[in-house]
Amino acid sequence: MFDIPGEILDGTPRVTITGFRRVVVENHKGILEYGENCIVINGGRVLVRLKGEDMELRAMTTDELLITGVIFAVDFDY
Q: Domain extents for the chain?
């Protein structure tokens, strides 16, 4: 009926990567670990682990995170 993505409805995090320097995570449940080389985000049923260099949390709202830096890898732990 409505054109709402399924991940929004079931609470799954949505990860958008632009190049290798910018990551936006929607539907997060908070940050579990924060460092310039590793950031772990609680996504509810999944943990999102970002690995890189000089990573920095640039903005955070209750719904979105904006992380910048040199991103090497994104892992999902179920």
A: 6-77
Q: What angle do CA 17, 21, 23 make, to 5 degrees?
A: 35
pLDDT in tens, 40-70: 999 999 999 999 999 999 999 999 999 999 9
Q: What mean pLDDT is predicted for residues 16-25?
A: 97
Please work out, in degrees rounded to the nearest 5, the angle formed at the alpha carbon of residue 54 by the alpha carbons of 51 and 57. Answer: 80
SS3 10: helix
Whole-number Å distance between alpha carbons of 24 and 68: 9
For residue 35 the two structure tokens come to 């460092």
35 vs 27: CA distance, rounded Å: 21
- The third-level CATH classification (topology) of the domain covering 6-77 is Immunoglobulin-like (2.60.40)
For the whole model, what pTM was predicted? 0.87
> What three-state secondary structure class fits 69?
strand
